[in-house]
Amino acid sequence: SDVCSSDLVSLIGGVGAPQIPSHSSEVCRTLANGLGGRAWQLPVPAIVDTAEATTHLKQTSTVGAVFDLMRRATLALVGIGEISPRATVFRHGVIAESSIATIAARGAVGTICGWFYGADGAVIPTEFDDRPLSVPPKVLRAVPTRLGVAMHVEKAMAVRAAILGGWINAVGLDAET
Question: Rounded distance, CA 12 to CA 54, Å?
Answer without folding.
Answer: 13
